Please model this.
Amino acid sequence: MDVLIQFLLRLAFGLGVAMLVTSSRQVDAGFYRVHLWIGLGLTAGAAAAGTTIGPIEAVSSFYFYGAAISAAVASYVAAVLWLYEYALAGKIGIAIFTILCGVAGSMAVTGADQVAGAVDFVTGGLLLGSVTLAMLLGHWYLNNPGMKLAPLNRLVLLAVVAALLRCLLCAWGDVRQWPQLDALGGTFLALRWLWGFVAVWVLAAMTWQTLKIPNTQSATGILYVAVICVFLGELSSQLLSRGLPYPL
Model:
């Protein structure tokens, strides 16, 4: 169940970063408000999962629950600020929410190498959040078809860069820990790379070309598939990396 906590916090962290790089001048306030509610649900869910299974050490549990609950509160406050279209204050609220997600995630990191665990959290969160928010932003064009495509293109580029950073980190972990994997683990690792990296880059390229038409509805459909691939890849990475010092 610690995999679920990490996954929820990574996704919340990544959504926060992706919202921060999305221009509030080109995307209306309702987009931020609605998706901060998602952040509220993710962080509250992580805190609830922690109380159910208690995977955090006693020394860190206070900070974990404090950070996770504070992130949920910050998400709610930021959503209220966006309700009244206070863009600057709303962005600050998103930044605070993102930082608190990172703090809660660092408290929940498992494994011998804490530095590798922290980088694993950040890169995994960036990939999850950028692809997911890109798909959600694609939906938003149905509500506001007059929006410029630059914010969506920016999120697609962020997803490509995040996948590259994630790929480099996991390749390093693969090389160091390959002898510890059996045949079944090697098979699942190959699938993890196929749907977690290769598929994401192919789908990102398809999305980029589709936006040149432009056709945001088709691009959103492609991003749906990308979200599924990223979720499968990241969950596979977390499961394969359990008990190992470095991410796979």
